[in-house]
Amino acid sequence: xxxxxxxQSFWSKYVFSTDHKTIGTQYMIMGMIMAGVxxxxxxxxxxxxxxxxxxxPFYGMLGPQAYNAFVTIHGMIMVFxxxxxxxxxxxxxxxxxxxxxxxxxxxxxxxxxxxxxxxxSALVLIASFFVPGGAFGGGxxxxxxxxxxxxLDPNPNFFKALFSGTSLLILAVALELVAMLMGGxxxxxxxxxxxxxxxxxxxxxxxxxxxNIAAVIFMFSVGPLVAGAFMLLFDNVLGTGFYDPxxxxxxxxxxxxxxxxxxxxxxxxxxxxxxxxxEILPVFSRKPLFAYKTIIYLALASAFLSVLVWAHHQFxxxxxxxMATFFSIGTILISIPFAGIFLAFMATLxxxxxxxxxxxxxxxxFIGLFLVGGLTGLFLGSNTFDIYAxxxxxxxxxxxxxxxxxxxxxxFAAFYYWFPKFSGKQLNSSMGKWHFWLTFIFFNGVxxxxxxxxxxxxxxxxxxxxxxxxISREPYQTFEQIATICAIGLMLTQFxxxxxxxxxxxxxxxxxxxxxxxxxxxxxxDSPPPHGNFNPYPEVFRGAYDYSLPDAEVDFTPQNTPxx
Amino acid sequence: MTIFPENVSTYGQDIxxxxxxxxxxxxxxxxxxxxxxxxxxxxxxxxxxxRADYITGEKKKHFKWVTYALVALLLSDFVILYVEHxxxxxxxxxxxxxxNDVHVGIIARQWNWIFVYPGPDGVxxxxxxxYVDEMNSSLxxxxxxxxxxxxxxxxxxxxxxxxxxxxxxxxxxxRTVMRWFNITKPGKYDISCxxxxxxxxxxxxxxxxxxxxxxxxxxxxxxxxxxxxxPVAAAAADTTKK
Lengths: 564, 242
Prior knowledge:
heterodimer, A: Cytochrome C Oxidase, Chain A, 15 helices, 63% helix, B: alpha+beta, Immunoglobulin-like, 5-stranded mixed beta sheet, 36% helix, elongated
């Protein structure tokens, strides 16, 4: 295929673009804006937790209804409007065509639609704050009957119910899932059909593999949730009773449908970030990725197991006690492939020639923090200990120790690593190091002490603990305050990053194609890659991780280097 | 500062012990993993013309270390599962109700816990049941007796959490869940709701008041005396009953 150099208007180049790089960038910017919104919500409710009853700077007084809504929407945003678009869509769109040596995604127009549906979903979500009654405040899990509306409104009305915070949230999530489905189909078809000559399955970089496995897990698990979400919407606006026990429904049905998606979703978020690690660790260790094929098999095993663990979120929900044992075993089993992947990553470091550049620091920080998240999962995977720890701050701290490194450390590692490719420019590395260390320290400051609050019995989603004697005492209130101060520090730290990006973008292009001396195909393209990506199209002769080959002169051999 | 709130139930210590057991496994795994992660960053720094070893990790002699670690992890997981299994069964299965046990009902509603005492006949679900629907009314129970309760919800999902007894159980509308506890020390213990249930979720608190058997008898006697059977009202109040 020829590169096309026809003139594009501003609209078709930057707004309604079908270029995978522009769409990836749009997803990334949108995700970062939403991260700002989610962070602001977190700031407001964390401030309230540390200083209950005080007026919050840049917000004002926070009532219980708004508190519930903020906690709920914070979770929703960070999972569906930050994690998904940034990890899956932004890097998937940007990197898959470049890394398999293609000019674009298989369905560029579907890709563009995917982004704009996503943008609409974000607007619907934000709009839900401004309808009468405000945004939904029943937790991101949206358990009915609380989310089924009927109990809240004595005079049901179709339009009032449709334009309620609850319905808008369900709609926003449904739209977001549609956008991600379109993206997921694109990932699969592109990877299957549009690979460069010689790019066989066992030469595809891990991140492309993982993005595709994530897309498959997502597609497999999302169906029941969409069906469940429509039933929930009907309960709200049409007065059906799918989840209403007084009319033959069952709220437990939603719990199963939600978590059948909700738990695999965790792996949908995790796999792309693990892919980022798989790209960065070999480059900065100058060593082949340890056990490339085994890692792929482990990820496939985890994809299969991911749909067998959902009810570990329901150990205390009143499910059959024997069923809990089954899901406990499933949870144990799925920890094995992921532990294997992390161990293989760590093994990659051994015997390397390690360059501690900024992306590498984020990657190592990711593994270190995830270690805490993963090991505290041992406590919660045990159904018996979960009787006590369920819905406490132990759980809150645990999943932030998994999702924060996953989403943010994964994102920053990737961003610092691929920014020279995105822009043709380099980020300032001392600012990058400050950004890393402050983020790392403040993150631990926010969540480590909260494990102790959870073990002391502090339960979640409470705006005022004054009623509870176990918690409204020292040192737990001090821990809350430390957490909040660190959270504010964590958010302020991100301005270093923004400043760094803005400043670097104003620099002159270096034009360096391959600053990290990496082997994968995106580094063969110009920086930034032109419309059409490659000229001429590369041919692939070897695997993705040929570093320090014994008989090679330099310590990296790009994939398009013919075999001797 | 202690890690857990004071344990006052018969099975609470098992849960605390389980925590320490898992902590031992987790701490060992954490220290080893952290070493494996950080040591090479010091030992294998680039520089001085160092060139990385070419190890693909596909060979058995390299991969065996990962296998050992995974087997160790799997074994410790199953040790945990084995140890916890009896405790799980103990907490989640309700003992047969004997004469010395107390049988009560707990009904969650936005936003309070309603307690149902079995009445003079000692049998729950009969017309002499007494409903106590007041804020901070406290569920009175005798110490060292099995308290078997039927948990229900009148509206949305709530969750009954008695941290001092290490017990948590969701209350779902349309279902009756049986659970039990046995409190060994007199005192007043917080009940909180751990499933977000609306605007006053934070205020959905009540207490379990564990008393000596004599105090408990005194309490129930005066409660039953003050609530002479009003069968119609009692039956009507029990709306979620099958």
